[in-house]
Amino acid sequence: MLNKLLAQADSIAIGGHVRPDGDCVGSCMGLYQYIREVWKEKAVDVYLEDIPDVHKFIEATKDIRHEIVQGKTYDLFICLDCGDADRLGFSLPLFRSARKTFCVDHHVSNREFADVNYIFPDASSTSELVYDLTDKDKISTRTAEALYLGIVHDTGVFQYSCASPSTFEAAAELLRKGIDGPKIIEDTFYEKTYAQNQVLGRALLESILLLEGRCIASYLTKKQMEFYGVTAKDLDGIVSQLRVTKGVEAALFLYELEPNVYKVSLRSGDMVDVSRVAQYFGGGGHKKAAGFSMTGTHRDVMSNVIKQIALQLPDTEEKES
Ligand code: 5GP
Ligand code: MN
Q1: What is d(CA 86, CA 107) in angstroms, rounded to the nearest whole number?
Q2: Cα 306 from Cα 240, distance rounded (Å)
Q3: Which residues belong to any copy of the DHHA1 domain (predicted)?
Q4: What is the pLDDT of residues 152-181, one digit of tens each?
Q5: N or C: which terminal CB in the chain sees fewer CB atoms within 10 Å?
Q6: What three-state secondary structure class fits 33?
């Protein structure tokens, strides 16, 4: 599928979602490097917002374009890790103007919005799907590094239920390309800056248990983020830490994007499908990890979200506050 699309295009753009995470960076950079190395005659560009510093060990990230040139069009736009076209953010006009569009994604909320779609909601990550689409013997060490990074992040280091036998097979093959797997895991997933650990601590301290201990919620305002000197890129992992609290079925973590606009991150265990909650509020994601943005005070946002979660935990009583 990928070979056919690439054969028909001279110019190719790759784009991923706003506030890129490990899988977004991994899949975009893996595919970008693969095309550059295997399809040398093609002109390929990659468009992403600013990425977390820990992912900049992938050398080709220096080629990332952070803005578009008006009037530039591509034969093929490849949209990665986006459940809907709006998630592309600033690169959306390039998607709209491209002669052909191709979407590779694993969000259950994806509605197949491109001309050609390769959507597998059960896949661990978009990076695993990019791996599926490539010729394995043509994957270089550098491409393998990027795809491994993506798989590591979206599986929580091979821990979440989305990590299937095919995920481990892909990871094994990528390790055979000579990458330093443990270093990628340590440097990009576990290592945190002092400020990141401080805000994690703050979010845990300020968290509240709701719905008889089956739901946990916490938040950070813009002012608090400024106080600790952190930005949205530094908050990865907080909601997952909230979620592992004993007895908790659903965790929500909000942080303020602009005054009274909150980004909501949701995580769940087996009982709650948070993608349904996120889609109800105009966002998307997966059964156990989803998100959206909402306007209001943190109290309003929290109480609206809790109501929706409570509907999926029918034998808990939501206490009126
Ligand atoms: P996170 O909470 O880590 O930002 O996101 C969890 C999952 O939900 C990711 O797969 C992400 O792509 C998806 N997600 C997060 N925020 C949004 C959003 O605003 N809209 C949509 N459609 N998906 C989101
Ligand atoms: Mn992903």
Answers
A1: 14
A2: 17
A3: 227-308
A4: 999 999 999 999 999 999 999 999 999 999
A5: C
A6: helix
**Residue-level pLDDT at 318:** 57
Given a cut of 50, whether residue 320 has pLDDT beyond it is no
Q: What is the pLDDT of residue 319?
A: 52
Instruction: Answer whether 288's CB lies under 8 Å from 267's CB.
Output: yes
pLDDT, tens only, 233-244? 899 999 999 999
> What is the Å distance from ligand 1's center to 203 Cα?
19
Atom nearest to 109 CA in ligand 1: 22
321 pLDDT above the threshold of 90: no
Q: Is the CB of 124 under 6 A from ligand 1?
A: no
Q: Domains, the chain, ranges and CATH?
A: 2-190 (3.90.1640.10), 194-310 (3.10.310.30)
Class of residue 69 by CB neighbours under 10 A (exposed 0-12, middle 13-18, buried 19+): exposed
Alpha carbon distance 255, 236 (integer Å): 11
* For the CA of 292, the nearest atom of ligand 1: 19
- The response to whether residue 245 sits with its C-beta less than 6 Å from ligand 1 reads no
Tokens of 113: 């919005």
| Residue 31 pLDDT greater than 80, yes or no | yes
Binding site membership of 293 for ligand 1 (Cβ less than 6 Å): yes
87 Cβ below 6 A of ligand 1: yes
Does any ligand 1 atom lie closer than 6 A to the CB of residue 20? no
pLDDT tens for 258-283 read 999 999 999 999 999 999 999 999 99
Decide: 138 and 39 in contact? Cβ < 8 Å: no
DSSP secondary structure, 159-210, as one string: TSTT--HHHHHHHHHHHTTT--HHHHHIIIII---HHHHHHHHHHHHT-EEE
Q: Are 219 and 186 in contact (CB under 8 A)?
A: no
Average per-residue pLDDT in the chain? 96
